[in-house]
Amino acid sequence: KVAWVHIDRQMILTIGRHVITRIPRFNIIHDSHHTWTLNIRDVQAEDKGYYMCQVNTDPMISMTGHLDVVVPPTIIDEESSPSTVSIREKHNASLICKSNGVPYPNITWRREDGRPIFRDTQKNSGVKLEKAVHHGEYLDLQDISREQMGAYLCIASNKIPPSVSKRITLIVEFQPMMYIPNQLIGAPVNTQVTIECTTEASPKAITYWVFKEVMILRSQRHHTEEEVEGYRLHSRLTIKQVIEADYGAYKCVSKNSLGETEGQIRLYEIVSESTSLATTFTPRQTRSPHRHTTRESFPYNPGLPNNQWSRQPPHREPRPTQPEVQEKWNWSSRGDSLRPVLTLF
User: Fold this and answer.
1) DSSP label of 219
2) Given a cut of 50, is residue 228 above it in pLDDT?
3) Cα dist from 147 to 129, 200, 316, 327, whole Å
4) Of 40, 105, 238, 272, whose CA is between 20 and 30 Å from 197?
């Protein structure tokens, strides 16, 4: 007779065509010749070990073989970090990933977004060591910053497919911080203007706008919108048909459970060209029909007589006639020369 024995368990499995063990997964197959096959269905990890095929002859003969059972990796959730881990900024954190499998799995850490892992900080230089991949069950993160917030993947593999992974989301908590792109914005009357602020906060902050100590609500003239980008939030306030009462200081306020912050934007009036012309225009005075002389229009007075209200030409002595000029010439002789003498009136 032929018998199969599990040496590690010290268990007789089959004798001849009969299955001795009570484990239903074991079965014996005989091909009516000299071949006895032990068949194991749904192999388990405990089935590994040494098996002996024994032939009851005199003397007894036997053959021994070893069964190595490989097991795909699994992650032990009870011994690993939860799916969400919250930590305050500037604190330290340690993510844990435990697994089973045969052979024992290797653990690899990656960031879901592909960014490098800031694993450690050198105390002397203060430079962070950036690694895209980290190996080991523990991922230690020191002096955590908000840039390290995100999803981390723990991947277990032992070359037996399939590999398994667990997603752990790291939430870094910090109080709101605000950035104002433009703190001074100008707009003309009857136009549309948009002011904006950017807030970083975790947990997510409540952001709203205040003008003259009153919170601004949505209306026909006021429109607010928000754009979320991770832990960053962009808030915009649009004012339609700006009027004089809209000019002044606007506050962007942001609050979460850890604190609050605010920023101020001042809206001032820009005088448009049409408004400026309408404001500075004055009617031109009607000129008198007569033309001004050069002396009246020119501010410089070289000492000429003031004839502003007289249109008569200045009085001049009449020029003497030709005979009168001739009469006024006196001739005198001194020696042989004649010297004319001209007397002018």
Assistant:
1) -
2) yes
3) 14, 11, 100, 118
4) 272
